[in-house]
Design a protein that fits this description.
The chain is of the alpha/beta class. It contains nine helices and twelve strands.
């Protein structure tokens, strides 16, 4: 067949990101005055720069927003203390939190109200983790990996629960939960996995083709958790080389003569035109055969 591109499917935008982007677009078009966005709306450099070009101002905290102005909360969610500060400053809040992140917040509230110690699995410092921990700071203990479990002490083993960030590596999270169950046999979990459908499906799509690829290109920004997890999965599934990029020019230094099959996917914060630019670039490099591989049909009608 010669040079070819394998497109992993599903890929790209998820329901939560699509909702957040549309809400910010509508806010910019409908609201008068400057629109402030607390943190990045999603972890995607190109999209953030696009909204800046439309006049949106990215701020670190609501304290940086003038009183009475409109502020957009990102898809990653915020803690109750952020909402309280926004209310104190009389800000008009547009909340784009992903419904699947809200689900984890609600689970944390429910477990805390029932007196559970909550072990939250996640990525250190991630905005989603910070927001969930803010719901029940006295009840939640954070862990990043299996090694952190040994440091968990002073927990009532008869009343403990676990939750997770929505964008983690599925297999690694299952290993952590298995270890937690060994330490706390009575541990409770969420009624339905906290790792969202889109994260699971995109990881499955990468696993479906990675072993066939001389190079796997993951499109998505370096600060995107779900995109980093896709790169991890590609490496775990024996792709010979893996690159995480925002723009196709980042591939310029490669010796394409050594690469027969290139896998391509994109994270949930990546719009389709970013992917199309990469595919177009590869076509110009001689990869004229582009094949889509569907690992699972994605159903977003009831993802929670």
């Amino acid at each position: 067949m010669g040079k070819k591109v394998l497109l992993a499917s599903p890929r790209g935008f998820c329901m939560g990101v699509n909702q957040a982007i549309k809400m910010l677009e509508e806010t910019i078009s409908q609201e008068s005055g400057t629109i402030y966005v607390r943190k990045e709306i999603v972890h995607n450099v190109a999209l953030v720069e696009h909204f800046k070009s439309l006049g949106a101002v990215i701020v670190d905290e609501v304290d940086d927003v003038p009183e009475g102005c409109a502020v957009v909360f990102s898809a990653h969610g915020v803690s109750p203390s952020v909402r309280e500060k926004a209310n104190d400053r009389n800000l008009k809040v547009i909340d784009t939190t992903c419904p699947l992140v809200t689900k984890v917040h609600n689970e944390a509230i429910r477990f805390a109200e029932q007196g559970y110690a909550i072990i939250l699995i996640g990525e250190t410092g991630h905005k989603e983790v910070t927001g969930v921990m803010g719901e029940a700071p006295d009840n939640i203990r954070f862990i990043h990996d299996e090694k952190d479990i040994d440091g968990l002490a002073g927990i009532n083993s008869s009343k403990v629960a676990w939750l997770s960030q929505t964008t983690l590596n599925v297999d690694e999270t299952q290993k952590i939960v298995k270890h937690l169950r060994e330490k706390f046999p009575l541990i409770q979990g969420p009624p339905k996995s906290d790792i969202c459908y889109a994260t699971r499906n995109r990881q499955l799509a990468v696993r479906n083709i990675a072993s066939e690829c001389d190079l796997f290109v993951i499109i998505g920004s370096k600060n995107s958790s779900n995109t980093k997890r896709l790169a991890e999965v590609a490496r775990e599934t024996d792709a010979l080389e893996v690159m995480q990029i925002d723009e196709p020019e980042e591939l310029d230094y490669l010796d394409f003569a050594l690469l027969s099959t290139i896998g391509v996917t994109s994270g949930v914060s990546v719009e389709n035109n970013q992917l199309e630019r990469v595919v177009s670039y590869l076509r110009k490099k001689g990869y004229t055969h582009v094949e889509e591989r569907v690992a699972v049909k994605e159903n977003t009608t009831n993802p929670i």
